[in-house]
């Protein structure tokens, strides 16, 4: 192969890689507002929970996993939040991504977490929500609209949730 031909092939290959990476990067961008995507998942006790059943309440929807250190770090504050708020006004749904029921139940029992933990063992709901990193928390208003999406661990408080919702 001549130098000229080699050079053209190399440039074409680089351009192809550039366009492929640009196309990949233009994938579905996670929504931060609009109607929350409805779903049904099973909790640790085998009960089905459908997001739309919680219309009329503010939903704190947290995506996490037991192996994730930042997720584990924020869960005690989520438990305090859950214990402090009016259950008629708020609901906390913690969606574990990709783990089996026994592992998640053991983790929740060991740590005394009493809020609702749902299992997204295939990661389908996390995929629909465009979750790219965990923990990610979505706050959903009483009408079922996504108010905000927060990526990363934090110390949760009722005042902070109320501030974000208003």
TrEMBL record:
Taking every annotated instance into account, which residue ranges of this chain make up the domain Thioredoxin? 30-166
Pfam family example for this protein?
AhpC-TSA
Any coiled-coil regions, as ranges: none
Record's InterPro entries?
AhpC/TSA, Thioredoxin-like_sf, Thioredoxin_CS, Thioredoxin_domain, Thioredoxin_ResA/DsbE_sf
Superkingdom of origin: Bacteria
| Molecular functions per Gene Ontology | antioxidant activity; oxidoreductase activity
* Entry protein name: Thioredoxin domain-containing protein
Q: Which organism is it from?
A: candidate division WOR-1 bacterium DG_54_3
Q: What is the lineage of its organism?
A: Bacteria, Bacillati, Saganbacteria
């Amino acid at each position: 192969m001549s130098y000229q031909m080699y050079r053209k092939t190399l440039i074409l290959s680089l351009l192809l890689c550039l366009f492929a990476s640009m196309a990949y990067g233009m994938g579905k961008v996670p929504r931060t507002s609009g109607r929350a995507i409805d779903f049904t998942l099973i909790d640790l006790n085998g009960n089905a929970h459908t997001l739309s059943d919680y219309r009329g309440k503010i939903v704190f929807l947290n995506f996490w996993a037991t192996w994730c250190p930042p997720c584990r770090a924020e869960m005690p504050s989520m438990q305090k939040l859950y214990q402090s708020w009016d259950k008629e006004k708020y609901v906390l749904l913690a969606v574990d991504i990709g783990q089996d029921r026994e592992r998640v139940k053991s983790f929740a029992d060991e740590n005394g977490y009493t809020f609702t933990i749902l299992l997204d063992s295939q990661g389908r709901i996390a995929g629909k929500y465009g979750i790219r990193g965990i923990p990610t928390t979505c706050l959903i208003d009483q009408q079922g609209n996504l108010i905000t999406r927060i990526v990363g661990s934090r110390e949760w408080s009722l005042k902070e949730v109320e501030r974000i919702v208003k």
